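Workshop exercise sheet. Pairs work together: one partner reads the sequence aloud, the other fills in the structure field after running the prediction. Swap roles for the next sheet.
Pair: D.N. / O.F.
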Amino acid sequence: MKKLKPHAVDWAQIERFLASAEKKLASAHKILAFDEEACLQQAYEAMLKASLGFMFSHGFRARSQPGHHIAIIEFVRSRIDRKHAGLLTVFDRLRRKRNMALYDDTGFVSHRDAESALESAGDYLRVIRADIAARKP
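Structure field:
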């Protein structure tokens, strides 16, 4: 089955997704003081929301099916400037770390893991926002 489907480009919707990503990142910063796992989860979701806005800006969306988060990461990786490949690697690592924390008791999230997730998510959101802004009519 195909992983993507066409999606009408709606700049207002894209901006709402980017704004939601920024809110999730701000929440993650506040949560860090008392819950590292929730902080990492929010940082990951911020990256995911920004990625969805990125997909929408290219006229696509991921189908809701198992593995759709991987499909989103692969989509961004295939269309973003290669100099940002490291951020996509971190994004995928956060996806795996989040899954371990959620579904497996070995998924401990340290304070340093959470801080690193926040830093990477902030960088990622800046890159995605700049890419979208450069292509917006």
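Discussion prompt: The helical segments are 11-31, 36-57, 68-79, 85-103, 111-135. What would you look at next?
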